[in-house]
Amino acid sequence: MEIHPYLTTKTLVPENQESPIHFLRSQKIFPLPYFYRRNHFSYPFLLPNLYYLTIYGLVHHPSYFHLEQLKLMPSKSFVIPLECAGNQRDKFIPKVFGEQWKGGAMSQAEWKGVPLKDILSKACLQKDAKEVVFIGADCGRRTDTVGVFYYARSLPIAKALHPDTMIAYECNGQPIPFKHGYPLRLIVPGWYAMASVKWLQQIIVIDQPFTGPFQAVDYIYYPHKNSDANKKPVTTINVNSLIQFPLDFSIHDTGTIVIEGIAWTGNGVITQVEISVDNGETWKEATLASQHDEPYAWTQWSFVWEAYEKGEYIILAKATDSSGRTQPFAAMWNRKGYGYNAVQKVHVKIE
């Protein structure tokens, strides 16, 4: 009987499901049925034939675009991982509230779309423009305030005009699946996935910081439990790695074990992954797969371990990127549980 991996459900309404990331080791691009799902509200009701993307605010030419118009414009495509800012939240000590993601609140796919800067160029930004707000079609109520809110996020002008920030309409060579943002999704390479607004329907250019709840309340690093001091926004993905094999607390026979995993960063590329099989006493470099053709994709790595002595071991993985960032041994605790990136740890027993 053939056995298939499956998504792990965290909540049904809204639907939040974790990818079986440990069981997709050989796949740089994830099949869409295994792509993780993160929602704040129930899925929106859409009429694709009447769906237009509108752009207004501080622009000289307020505009609207139908999906078919966007498909006629010059496009780009990149292999890009999307990682929920709360990925691995369950590892923070002391514990924090929120979806207790383990390691599968991230997936990777090939996204195709129109550079956002080309859309903004057609609308012609005014000189006072400071931020660009993106509003999705999903909406609902929050527990911390009164009223109905659409999911909305903003980008500073510089990030909005980055040549690789795009309005995507395809994922893995097909229209974006409805549950992942059909018909249009903003894709922001290098930033946590809260920035990549699904079901994109409005773009508003403004001259001051956006203060919507998903910008000014959520997706903020609060380093203190009872104070907002030193808070800062969640933006660039931290350098990180994941041991996909062997699994935590697994048992293996003596012999050769190939340790496998992925490493990723939002700033540059992965330049080194170090492995320890003795809980950090000694370190050796893993072999990195080539990634020169995909500037944003995660890096697959492997390490051959000759495990001929029986016993219990702790395997560690530590990644470094081209900007000089290295995974810390302890992640920066914050009360909403974002950006976990401590050195990966897996316990194994050799018999």
Describe the structure.
By secondary structure, the chain is mainly beta. The protein folds into 2 domains: 8-218, Alpha-Beta Complex (Sulfite Oxidase, Chain A, domain 2), CATH 3.90.420; 240-350, Immunoglobulin-like, CATH 2.60.40.650. Helix content is 6%, strand content 38%. The protein is built from 4 helices and 23 strands. The chain has helices spanning 67-71, 116-123, 157-160, 213-216, and strands at residues 8-11, 16-18, 52-57, 63-66, 76-83, 106-115, 131-141, 148-156, 166-171, 174-175, 185-187, 200-206, 220-221, 232-233, 240-245, 250-252, 255-264, 270-276, 284-285, 287-288, 299-307, 311-321, 344-350. The strands form 6 sheets. Strands 4-3-12-7-8 form a 5-stranded mixed beta sheet. Strands 5, 6, 9, 10 and 11 form a 5-stranded antiparallel beta sheet that branches. It has a 5-stranded mixed beta sheet with strand order 16-23-22-18-19, with no helix packed on it. A hairpin with a 4-residue loop joins strand 1 (8-11) and strand 2. The longest helix is centred in the middle third of the chain and has 8 residues, at 116-123. It is globular. The protein starts with 7 loop residues before the first strand and ends with a strand. The mean pLDDT is 96.
